[in-house]
Amino acid sequence: QTIFVPKEVDATEARVAASPDTVKRLSGLGFSVVVEKDAGAGSRIPDADFVAAGGSIGKSSDAGKADVVLKVRRPTEAELKSYKSGAVVLASMDPYGNDAAVAAMAKAGISAFAMEFMPRITRAQSMDVLSSQANLAGYQAVIDAAAEYDRALPMMMTAAGTVPAAKIFVMGVGVAGLQAIATARRLGGVVTATDVRPAAKEQVASLGAKFLAVEDDEFKAAETAGGYAKEMSKEYQAKQAALTADHIAKQDIVITTALIPGRPAPKLISAAMVASMKPGSVIVDLAVERGGNVEGSVPGKVVTTANGVKIIGHLNVPGRVAASSSLLYAKNLFAFLETMIDKEKKAVVVNPDDELVKATLLTHGGKVVHSNFAKAEA
Ligand code: NAD
User: Alanine dehydrogenase/pyridine nucleotide transhydrogenase N-terminal domain: which residues (predicted)?
Assistant: First the structure.
């Protein structure tokens, strides 16, 4: 069978869904791997490295020969037209609110897998694109903040005097937040963090940061069985805002990462809180693509407020460290694809009864098959 790895159509997407390592592994399993010319350019992977790994270099129309397509983003209408019916396509499909796109994939007859729906169970940890990409986003958020912050982060005691350490507050400590804490600590910041899930408290402490939260009865019950946060009540939100307002006013850098599955991002920082911060302070809103945690953050922009606070709203933050994020993303896709490979037939076989397939398969055999999207039927 043939596996095709396109150059992403979206010009702002620097990542690629294969690495020399995964191409080598797939070739070793008996697949012919075709990588589109310059697909790895944004991730600093030259075509020659894919060739050395056993792949060959092709053009976008080679998608038509592929039994499997490995992608970062959901295929566009034009891409769908070039795929053969029955092709297996793995990507971050971003299906919520995009029923028409899901229906189009069903109509194209592809087996479309939404990698972001991979269950967060031990067996699937190596396939978890949300974690691998959020981890790098958390890291990059601190790097982006440091670049906009016009002072040093660590305390420096020198013969010429002392530079104080930056105070850094991380709001939301899932995968991205934990990495943001670790990175901020490595750069010498004095780090505090908050979350609504009690489990986060110990994790924050283990990274050497201080935990700050309203720890009432609602907090004790805020974690769902899946490990995610619930949407908090208005009362809780008011208590949380009261607790964090004074703290935020004293911070040099605030990084927000708070998300609630299937809901808009919770608003954690009001315009008044932003206005209370010192000029030159920096806020990074990692939730900006999901509505934002910060009042005044703008998707894709660095905004400077009237009082001189910079609010960073970069899109696709993992894509800002594409050379690193592509390696992990490629490995996630390989790990999942490998579970579907029949090693004797040297072919990918979709078993709709498999637990991981059930969780991720959006469309199959011309139909929308995922329970969350039954309505998206063409
Ligand atoms: P996420 O991206 O959904 O949310 C980021 C963080 O925001 C979460 O910690 C959440 O509790 C927090 N948050 C939500 N509302 C908030 C509010 N109002 N105020 C402050 N914080 C708020 O989270 P994630 O990174 O996907 O992680 C979710 C969970 O999954 C965590 O418990 C994590 O440890 C777990 N996880 C498990 C595995 C695994 O077992 N394989 C892998 C990755 C993550």
Answer: 4-137
Residue 254: phi and psi, rounded to 5, are -125, 130
Rounding to the nearest 10 degrees, give the CA dihedral for residues 120, 126, 130, 136.
140
Close Cβ partners of 318 (under 8 Å, ≥ 6 residues apart): 15, 133, 134, 136, 137, 140, 325, 329
Beta bridge partners of 214: none
Closest-CA residue to 211 (of 268, 256, 170, 260): 170
* Residue 93 CB less than 6 A away from ligand 1: no
Per the listing, tokens 């294969």 go with: 18
Mapped onto helix, strand or coil, the DSSP state of residue 81 is helix
Q: Is the CB of 138 under 6 A from ligand 1?
A: no
Mutate to test the pocket of ligand 1, among 120, 129, 212 (most ligand atoms within 8 A of CB): 120
Bridge partners, 70 (sequence order): 90
User: Which residue's entry shows tokens 């594409």?
Assistant: 322
Please give the single-letter amino acid code of residue 219.
F
pLDDT at 226 over 90: no
Query: Is residue 313 within 8 Å of residue 303, measured between CB atoms?
Result: yes
pLDDT in tens, 320-357: 999 999 999 999 999 999 999 999 999 999 999 999 99
**Nearest-atom index, ligand 1, CA of 259:** 4
pLDDT tens digits, 59-118: 999 999 999 999 999 999 999 999 999 999 999 999 988 999 999 999 999 999 999 999
Beta bridge partners of 112: 89, 363
pLDDT value for 53? 98
pTM of the model: 0.95
d(CA 9, CA 60): 10
Instruction: Say what the pLDDT of residue 262 is.
Output: 79
Rounded to whole angstroms, the Cα distance separating 71 from 142 reads: 27
Amino acid at 201: K
